[in-house]
Amino acid sequence: MAQNPSPASPVTSPEPPILFPKLPATAEPGWTTTEFWATVATMLIGLLATLGVIHVNVGDPAVANEIQVIAGLLAMVVPAAIYALGRSIRKSGTQG
């Protein structure tokens, strides 16, 4: 006796990876987060370097001054941009 082939089982695709964890209904205020205070501390170090309070010692004073200013500006801008991006991702889809 011939057996009827079983109907093809549905093909399911694997679940995509979770990129962002489930967020609470409200996000905590930005100034209370560790990210905020780490960003502020890093930006203060950049400001001190830009103003010349933190010195860079290389042979030529003009080169040292340029390095100091560029490093200080980068130390202020990059953390602020990363914090803003991270905070916007954190707050996406939440109230507050």
Comma- or semicolon-separated keywords:
96 residues, single chain, 2 helices, mainly alpha, 51% helix
Quick synopsis:
This protein has 96 residues and is mainly alpha-helical. It contains 2 helices and no strands. The protein has a domain at 30-91.
Evaluate the radius of gyration.
26 Å
Number of helices: 2
Helix content: 40-55%
Outline? elongated
Low-confidence stretches: none
* Mean pLDDT over all positions: 75
Order of helices and strands: HH
Give a short account of the largest sheet: none
Distance between the termini: 69 Å
Class by SSE composition: mainly alpha
- Please indicate the percent range of residues in DSSP E strands (runs of 2 or more): under 5%
According to DSSP, the number of beta strands is 0
Give the SSE map.
Blueprint: H1 34-51, H2 61-91
Helix pairs in contact: 1-2
Structure, described:
With 96 residues, the chain is mainly alpha-helical. It has a domain at 30-91. It has helices at 34-51, 61-91. Helix 1 (34-51) runs antiparallel to helix 2 (61-91).
